[in-house]
């Protein structure tokens, strides 16, 4: 019953690139590539929003869609570890996400009170990135040898302010900011919730590990279509777009942003 | 930085919302068709395997009841994930409306089985005796004495179930099935786009209220004493206006 | 044909156990109308439900048309039940079906064609006087109309055995008479055996060949109607044609209760009695009629100054049983007793 | 006290409109037991439901104890209904309550204390002979037992008006007698007005002061029981004590139907008739009893060679109405007519 | 890089899962308490405002029915988001169990109102007439003739509703309310931790099946004819074993 041939292997077929539909900025990026860059490489690209990350990865692996830009390497390796039947490759880093510490009540990290409530995202990779951020802000320290992409609360070495952690979903976290002392979250969800950027009280540049990658199905890496797709996303016009377009500015950062 | 630019412009909302509504109607329509076709026999079976039923069989009843409970236990996202191979086997894909229909139908069937079971429990036992005395086969008893007499209550339950499925379709949207509920969640909830949120809410409320209205009317139409009762005043009013 | 052997039905269990039917033995022949009477709660309805196995007997067996129902397979039982019509005490109509559709139910189950079903349903509704109510739903029918729909439904399959549980109880005398006539006609035409449960003694007289009195789950008396009526010692006979209250005799007269015990009572027995006793006989109350062509009845009479033994002998020679009537035993007193 | 004025009830609408009650006028005094009889579907139950306003009359008014019910507020209507006991034709028991809890229902609604409720419930159940079934649920009761629970419930609040719709229809004669006695006692003690709907003529004779015959929503005849019984032209009187089939007269005799039309019929009217006519008179059938102390009845007699006019005159002088009985008019023929 | 380290070790699963189960039970318990307390009167009101009801009032019925439909229209996530200010007003916060209870209760009340309404429609109209004739006030009629007689069916519906609320609690988990369904989604589903997934599924199925079992038993216990029927064989069996 499986589709006999993937669009990836069919010349001239439309290549679907999916992201999590909740991310308007990623959608804007894919649409930019589809409209402005893809024609240069002789392919036709289309955006598709899928809310569930598992579904996206499964579809990429099986060639139902051509690729996705929603994940970084760390996340992908987790996915592959958990689903040995998935065959996916991170082809090229495309952008970084705007990610920072937010607070409705305090204007600097130092003001966070003892026993304060801190929200992290509930998925493991973003939880890890949140912990890394807290470490950067000097609020906690992590055990030796903890890699930034896999940290869990168990990896916390010291927590001098006795912060309490609450795991929340993306959209729920920005809605709950008034009920929190601090939250580690993506810029996009805060701007969308009409929370002023001033409430982002700490936002260093993320390590390379957290760059958003164009991910493709390993089985299709050698097809003409996919080669062209990878080249399109690697085109400098993409970085230029990220640096200048108001739709994505501050939310998706160019890969070399500091 | 312009946040507005991310939001859907008002004039594009119909183009976003109406196809989504159509998707929802198709999805829920197909699902409910399957749910009714499978849930009614299944509900009748569970009811009649229970103590006092036509084929009273406690071990089998317990087994079947557990299976139905499993269908009702899993959070819908998990159910969708657990049956991925099955969904692909049936529909050949794991995304889109076709793929959403399978887990929705499973959840819906489990739900409706309980609704049917509960409705059948309300049928006076005498009617089953009458059917038996009249020489009815078990299938005929189920059809004429149980399902037919419980019909208004089953339709009432079907209404409840259909509306629950509209809600499920919002979750099923995560696997690319789209639908109005999904637009509400991704645009309204995740993108904080209040215009879309409002538009989808209005459409959802109108859809649900229409389903409820149709359901209520069907219940009335299938209940003889409600039907005859309801007709009288309407005509009387007409008569008055003629005078 | 119905025959019961040691039929016993127990409801409940442990301390709350009630023996509702207690080792019943009797049979109803083909073409026989067998009435069952008895006090409320005696077990009459339970009996009917045991005969078609809607209630499983606790012990004993039921044979209908020679088949032991409790030994039949599910399917054979269904076939057997199609030969047994059942009129339920509570009508048991399907609320979502019209009168006609309710009557058509057994035909539908059997798989009769739509045309034939329509024809037969119309005929049956006509027989029970409800042609004009065919399209009404149960809630639009009066109690007696619902009861008659139930009767029509029970007759739909032209059964060979009919279990009739208070079929005429909700019906006025005219409707009752027409239903009784219908049942008798079917009995004659089809050899229908009828178990006719009722509490109306009048109806028993109209319809039944035999009658049994059930009390506390036992048959306390039974027999052919006319025989019971002619037996002055029979309680059931008295119950069938109860003595009513009557005028008192003149002060100088004594009251006697005289009942017909033979087929040969002369129609002028009153004057013959007076003649032979050489005294005047007054008629205080009477109930004399023919049942199935046989004259039965009783009368209360006032007799002045006759010799007791002589009177009894003369009455006996006329085919009558005579016994003095103590004032205290008349009907009104009985009523008071019941209440106390 | 109940009084109806031009009470009309129409069911349905347009073409399907049925006039079920057609401008009824009558009243039931305090302490009166008023029976309503009539064919199935005549509108008797509808009448009862209109009296307590469970069905809204289409037009006309109902006064109970002097109050026009349809003008009362919801709350006043509730208070008024507590003075009206209603026995439903179908028992209407709550399936999830025991017999006792069903009887206690109106007391609960009124807010009577638990202890008093218990006492009164026990007393009522005892009065209807169901003390031993207090804890049974409706599905564990026989038809007659359920009916009696309904009766007890209707009496729970000691109403001043009782609407009794076929209260005794499912009951055996003994139970009927005891319920009748109970109702009469309450009538005497509390001045209860009773609208007693039934199809059992015997019960009408036992219980009622007056009776009306309802047919197609109209009262076609009504009156006091004894008067109707003494009026040979009264159809209702004949219906109350129907002529049964009787023996045929000898070949040389003619058959006459003689009915009591006055209070002064001598108990030896048979021999007086024979004496005065100078001929023999034979008794073919008879039904003579006292109702409320008044002797009423009729007899079929065979008379040889008497002059027609003379016989009628002599009978008349004895307080009897006599009319020749054509063979074709006897009861069995009537039955056949009903069926055709 | 060790991926394993992300998975919960088997010996820590009970510590993860059982407190979550407790959270779910607390959340659903509180919600169902509110749902019953509000849903029963509301359902009775909607039923009795409808044609043929005790306070027949079509405009009011339509209005109320629309309000209930709104409660049933919104996908749960959207409902949660829409009432954020209300939730904060009631509970002082928007995260945690207290905050989850508010939207869950609203969704549950709307659901249960329909369940109650459908059950009440099954009560034979005669019983209301009997109550009226016995001098009952409208409240007494609703209590004794409608709710009491419909109780088994309402309990059956309550069972269906409670299980639906367990599912909702998984969604409510996204606002930090925790619960077993949320653990299933975040740990099992999002972290691909099959051990946790399996453990939570087993616990969820057991919980749901238990709720169903208790519900079924309560239905039987509140239905006299089912109760007396069911008791007989058990005792008979005991007697046999004594012999
Ligand atoms: N809701 C209704 N719609 C239409 N017709 C109705 C309705 N209710 C009753 N009827 C009709 O009204 C007539 C009177 O019914 P009712 O129940 O008053 O009769 P009844 O005299 O009590 O008869 P019975 O002795 O059989 O109980 C019947 O012909 C019945 O079909
Ligand atoms: N399920 C049951 N559990 C316990 N007792 C029952 C049950 N069903 C019936 N009974 C009892 O069995 C007895 C016989 O009931 P049945 O209905 O056979 O009486 P009946 O002779 O038909 O009376 P009626 O003339 O009042 O209809 C009654 O006393 C009743 O209370
Ligand atoms: Mg009975
Ligand atoms: Mg009636």
From TrEMBL, chains B, E:
GO terms under cellular component: plasma membrane
Coiled coil: none
Transmembrane intervals: 21-44, 64-83, 95-116, 168-189, 196-215
Keyword Transport included in the entry's annotation: yes
Principal subcellular localisation of the protein: membrane
Keywords associated with the record: Cell membrane, Membrane, Transmembrane, Transmembrane helix, Transport
Highest taxon above the source species: Bacteria
Keyword hit for Transmembrane: yes
Compartments it resides in: Cell membrane
Family the UniProt entry places it in: Belongs to the binding-protein-dependent transport system permease family.
One GO process term, biological-process aspect: D-methionine transmembrane transport
Bilayer disposition of the protein: Multi-pass membrane protein
Domain ABC transmembrane type-1, first and last residues per copy: 21-215
Name used for this protein in its record: ABC transporter permease
Gene3D superfamilies membership: MetI-like
Species annotation: Cryobacterium lactosi
PROSITE patterns recorded: ABC_TM1
Automatic annotation (TrEMBL), chains C, D:
Biological process terms in GO annotation: amino acid transport
Gene3D superfamilies the UniProt entry points to: P-loop containing nucleotide triphosphate hydrolases
Molecular-function GO terms, alphabetical: ATP binding; ATP hydrolysis activity
Record flagged with keyword Nucleotide-binding: yes
UniProt keyword terms in alphabetical order: Amino-acid transport, ATP-binding, Cell membrane, Membrane, Nucleotide-binding, Translocase, Transport
All copies of domain ABC transporter, residue ranges: 2-241
This protein's name: ATP-binding cassette domain-containing protein
Organism from which the protein derives: Cryobacterium lactosi
Organism lineage string: Bacteria, Bacillati, Actinomycetota, Actinomycetes, Micrococcales
């Amino acid at each position: 019953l499986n589709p006999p041939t993937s669009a990836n292997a069919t010349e001239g077929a439309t290549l679907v690139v999916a992201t999590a539909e909740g991310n308007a900025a990623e959608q804007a990026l894919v649409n930019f590539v589809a409209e402005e860059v893809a024609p240069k490489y002789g392919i036709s690209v289309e955006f598709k929003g899928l809310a569930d990350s598992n579904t996206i990865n499964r579809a990429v692996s099986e060639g139902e869609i051509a690729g996705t830009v929603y994940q970084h390497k760390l996340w992908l390796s987790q996915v592959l570890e958990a689903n040995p039947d998935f065959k996916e490759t991170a082809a090229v880093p495309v952008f970084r996400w705007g990610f920072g510490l937010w607070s409705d009540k305090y204007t600097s990290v130092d003001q966070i009170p003892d026993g304060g409530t801190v929200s992290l995202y509930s998925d493991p990779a973003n939880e890890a990135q949140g912990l890394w951020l807290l470490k950067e802000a000097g609020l906690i320290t992590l055990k030796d040898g903890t890699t930034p992409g896999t940290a869990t609360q168990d990896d916390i070495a010291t927590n001098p302010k006795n912060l309490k952690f609450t795991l929340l979903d993306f959209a729920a976290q920005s809605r709950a900011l008034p009920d929190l002392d601090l939250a580690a979250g993506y810029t996009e969800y805060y701007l969308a919730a009409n929370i002023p950027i001033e409430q982002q009280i700490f936002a260093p540049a993320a390590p390379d590990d957290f760059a958003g990658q164009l991910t493709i199905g390993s089985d299709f890496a050698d097809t003409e279509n996919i080669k062209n797709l990878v080249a399109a996303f690697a085109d400098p016009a993409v970085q230029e777009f990220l640096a200048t377009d108001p739709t994505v500015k501050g939310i998706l950062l160019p890969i070399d942003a500091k | 930085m312009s946040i507005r630019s991310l939001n859907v412009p008002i004039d594009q909302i119909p183009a976003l919302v109406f196809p989504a509504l159509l998707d929802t109607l198709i999805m829920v329509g197909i699902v409910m068709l399957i749910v009714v076709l499978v849930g009614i026999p299944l509900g009748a079976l569970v009811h009649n395997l229970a103590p006092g039923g036509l084929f009273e069989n406690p071990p089998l009843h317990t087994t079947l009841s557990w299976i139905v409970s499993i269908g009702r236990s899993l959070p819908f996202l998990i159910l969708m994930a657990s049956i991925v191979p099955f969904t692909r086997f049936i529909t050949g894909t794991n995304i889109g409306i076709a793929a959403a229909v399978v887990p929705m139908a499973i959840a819906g069937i489990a739900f409706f089985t309980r609704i049917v079971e509960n409705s059948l429990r309300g049928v006076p036992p005498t009617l089953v005796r009458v059917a038996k005395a009249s020489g009815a086969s078990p299938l005929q008893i189920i059809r004429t004495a149980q399902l037919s007499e419980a019909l208004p209550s089953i339709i009432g339950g079907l209404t409840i179930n259909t509306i629950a499925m509209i809600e499920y379709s919002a979750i099923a949207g995560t696997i690319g099935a789209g639908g109005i509920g999904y637009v509400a969640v991704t645009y309204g909830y995740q993108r904080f786009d209040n215009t879309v949120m409002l538009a989808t809410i209005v459409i959802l409320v109108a859809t649900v209220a229409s389903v409820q209205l149709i359901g209520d009317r069907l219940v009335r139409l299938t209940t003889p004493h409600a039907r005859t009762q309801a007709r009288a005043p309407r005509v009387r009013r007409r008569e008055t206006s003629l005078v | 044909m119905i025959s019961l052997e040691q039929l016993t039905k127990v409801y409940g269990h442990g301390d709350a156990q009630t023996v509702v039917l207690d080792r019943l033995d009797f049979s109803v022949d083909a073409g026989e109308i067998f009435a069952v009477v008895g006090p409320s709660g005696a077990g009459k309805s339970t009996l009917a439900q045991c005969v078609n196995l809607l209630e499983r007997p606790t012990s004993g067996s039921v044979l209908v048309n020679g088949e032991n129902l409790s030994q039949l397979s599910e399917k054979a039982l269904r076939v057997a039940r199609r030969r047994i019509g059942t009129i339920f005490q509570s009508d048991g109509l399907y609320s979502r079906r019209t009168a006609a559709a309710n009557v058509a139910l057994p035909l539908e189950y059997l798989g009769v064609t739509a045309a034939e079903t329509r024809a037969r349903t119309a005929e049956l509704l006509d027989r029970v006087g409800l042609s004009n109510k065919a399209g009404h739903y149960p809630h639009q029918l009066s109690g007696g109309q619902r009861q008659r729909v139930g009767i029509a439904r029970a007759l739909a399959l032209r059964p060979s055995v009919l279990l009739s549980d208070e079929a005429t109880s909700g019906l006025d005398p005219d409707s009752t008479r027409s239903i009784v006539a219908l049942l008798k006609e079917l009995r004659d035409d089809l050899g229908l055996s009828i178990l006719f449960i009722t509490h109306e003694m009048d109806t028993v007289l109209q319809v039944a060949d035999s009658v049994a009195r059930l009390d506390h789950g036992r048959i306390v008396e039974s027999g052919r109607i006319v025989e019971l009526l002619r037996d002055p010692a029979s309680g059931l006979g008295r119950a069938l044609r109860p003595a009513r209250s009557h005028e008192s005799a003149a002060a100088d007269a004594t009251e006697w209760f005289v009942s017909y015990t033979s087929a040969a009572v002369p129609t002028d027995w009153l004057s013959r009695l007076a003649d032979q006793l050489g005294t005047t006989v007054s008629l205080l109350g009477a109930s004399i009629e023919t049942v199935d062509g046989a004259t039965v009845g009783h009368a209360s009479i006032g007799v002045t100054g006759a010799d007791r033994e002589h009177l009894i002998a003369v009455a006996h020679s006329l085919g009558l049983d005579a016994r003095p009537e103590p004032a205290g035993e008349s009907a009104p007193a009985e009523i008071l007793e019941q209440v106390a």
